[in-house]
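Board work, copied verbatim: Pyruvate kinase
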Amino acid sequence: MRRHRHAKIVATVGPASSAPDRLKALFLAGVDTFRLNFSHGTHDDHARVHAAIRALEAEVGRPIGILQDLQGPKIRVGTVRDGRLDLVAGESVRFVLDGAEGDEQAIPLRHPEIFAAVVPGQDLLIDDGRVRVRVTGLESESLTAEVITGGAVSNRKGVNLPGTLLDLSPLTAKDRADLAFGLDLGVDWVALSFVQKPSDMIEARGLIGDRAGLLAKIEKPQALERIEDIIRLSDAVMVARGDLGVEIPHEDVPGRQKELIRACRLAVKPVIVATQMLDSMVGAPAPTRAEASDVATAIYDGADAVMLSAESATGQYPVEAVSMMDRIIRSVEGHKLYHSIVAASDPGEEETPPHAVATATAVLAEALHAKAIVAYTASGTTAARVARKRPEPPILALTPNIDTARRLCLLWGAHPLQTEDVNSYEEMTAKAADYVQAEGFAKPHDLIVVAAGIPFHTTGNTNNIRVLQV
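↓ predict structure ↓
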């Protein structure tokens, strides 16, 4: 079976979607990769979902990606006296490192890394930015701040520090245990939260190795300052607009989204746009028109994938949300302006033979109105290089590695298929013709374009193009 669209859909699994029959319904509605959110659920819960997805994969005969999303550090206030403290703009408030309970003037904040890093003039955002305070004074175990935006502070509310680089690993003890568990399960992607700097990616890579793809969640302003290095050290990127939108001005998020998508295309790394894409469908059977436009904008920007969070995890209409996202993507990609808009944002490519060959493959396929591009790819690199040009023909990515096939479920335009490796040029062309017909991409006498690296059994060596009549 094949998708009649290029961009991919990622859906978060939760109580509304974890049953095997519901997972199948979501896949049939359009999910390409399932996200397991390790901020919630037990290891047993995630193991059952993982097993159900793999059983579904065997049933439908198509690779399905599984993304493990690690929770990351959670910075929260402690227990507030009486469970609630109302702050008024202009007044002073004190945060304390120690103490079992705050009082009318003090809020527990048991994070020594904050007291070590924050300086007067920097802001603390509480409860997703609903309350904002500005640091005015600092001692070793307490700080004072002026309330800029007042509101209620209750127990365990989250704290964001947009202007502060914290000396904090993105991998907590819980994350390390979850990561070991996920790698043993066999997840295809690991999403790293709370990325601030390139060394965070190096730390995670040291634990993951090549057992899964490493995905950087961009949700901190500090990450934007070193974004090229972070992208280079990642295998994919997520534009996590929820936390990012708390820490940078709302009006800056759309521009940052476009910048990140462009940077990832240039680096040949898949990019996911996430958070609140169809948020109203948590409780309603249809999205707002603004939400439909938001999904469409990500597709026009050239994103590889768009993601559902609460819509599919806890919402009342998970299947309908996936179906709606599928319909929006197909409508955008069928619009007469789509290809010209995506082409206008083409970031160019590196001046190397493999990149040039992949670019020529995409251009040639469009010029010939080929029915498909066949990319022989061991690691996924050849398919990704072709996909960067966002060609109109679909990309049939043939790989002998099931891990590669599953990871390609995030890549724009790719229809991944695990096949036996080829050993000769004649076998390459014969199998390409067979697979495009078997998968419904072409009929006898149609033209296809084949890209591969020769000699075979090497990675990253895209150096051969073949135009073939089926």
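Residues 43-60 form the longest helix (18 residues).
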